Amino acid sequence: MRIAVLLICLLLPLSAQSQTVSQPTGTITIDDSATQDAAMANRIRGILGELEGFDDITVTVSSGIVTLRGNTLDMPTAQRLAELVGRVEGVVAIENEVTETTDVVQRLNPAVERFLIRARQMIAFLPLAMIALSLFLLIILLGFALARRKQPWERLAPNAFIADIYRQIVRLVFVIGGLVAALDILNATALLSGILGAAGIVGLAIGFAVKDTVENFIASIMLSIRQPFRPNDTVEIEGDTGKVIRLTSRATILLSFDGNQIRIPNSTVFKSRIVNFSRNAERRFTFSLGVAPEADLAHAQALALSTLEALPFVLDDPHASAWIESVDDSSVTMGMAAWINQNETSIVLARSEAIRLVQAAYDTAAIGAQAPAYRLLHEGGLDPSQLQPTKSAISDPEGPDMQAPPAREVDAVEDEQLSRIVDQERAGEQIDLLRTNAEQE
């Protein structure tokens, strides 16, 4: 039982009561005067009476030993009391028997007093705060009204997107200016550095969190300034080919030749290789055809050139060309190229017609590539007289007339239809950063 009581006493909070003996530094005099003790006690009581929080402290002095009793709000205050008393001349030792009060009223009274003092200060400060707030709002309203105007921002900016960025910058400048003016009236400009520092840290954290979004935003600005393509241009971006519909603040929108919309993020467009097929009206198409290995290759080359140059949609300048591309076991591959005006001619149809007519010319001249011949070995042997050779009607110069029909119309009708679809898409009121009259990059 005694051990349990001892443990309970040891677990009691030591801060509830503190009795310490302080030993001030200094020489102890041999004089023992009651008058001196009374003078020290009065001096200590006078000091404590001028300080807040020591109203319940009693002081007794005997032979230079000061005994302090009473209650304080917390133990650090009691320790400061001992340090203060130790500075009084003549104090030999200090017995600090001051305890921490647990009275609810005494502990709440200082908090209530501080609240009332701050409330009175706030009421006295309210007119000045209203003036600062009014000036802050006035400057912000002025900045927003200036940013709302179309001019001079649309005249200074190359497009509407950049003009909106200018407006956002103006709003931000006026907000910061209003904040500085309001804090200056309140004599609190020191807070501005802290606010800006915190805003910078928060902005840096947000920037890392939305790095891709920031990258895409910057790419949109650069593309809107550079204008690498125009509406209705046929471009290839990151393997996607189509006609440009519009450039928005987030993506570049294409219309594929299958009629599908393709949205490519501007960050991808800015970093990718862009092939613009519409920047130059002249465009070359190429194809390959095989001829018989025993044919006159110079004659095959000349025949291909004459056939290409006779096509009505092939341009005279640059000239068409033909060359020997490769030699295989059963054929010789000829490469051919010709130029067209893609604004008037469909490159797909032009290439198709060129292949058809050159192949027909080769077949008519009996120099077209034949199917490869294979040698068959029979185990039991086979009389060669039993093998009957076959004739190819195409390779027989005395066969039926293989004259190919003339070239068909290859106008760029499909491109015109896609252009009409693009114009319909652009007829809406959606934001477009492309300009038809922008300077070429």
UniProtKB/TrEMBL annotation:
GO terms (molecular function) for this protein are: mechanosensitive monoatomic ion channel activity
Per the record, which residues fall in region Disordered? 380-425
State which residue ranges cross the membrane: 122-147, 168-186, 192-210
* Signal peptide segment: 1-18
Q: How does it sit in the membrane?
A: Multi-pass membrane protein
Q: What is this protein called?
A: Small-conductance mechanosensitive channel
Tell whether Transport is among the UniProt keywords.
yes
Organism of origin: Sulfitobacter undariae
Broad class of where this protein is predominantly found: membrane
Q: Which GO terms describe its cellular component?
A: plasma membrane
Q: Does the keyword section mention Transmembrane helix?
A: yes
What does the record give as the function of this protein?
Mechanosensitive channel that participates in the regulation of osmotic pressure changes within the cell, opening in response to stretch forces in the membrane lipid bilayer, without the need for other proteins. Contributes to normal resistance to hypoosmotic shock. Forms an ion channel of 1.0 nanosiemens conductance with a slight preference for anions.
Q: Which domain of life is it from?
A: Bacteria
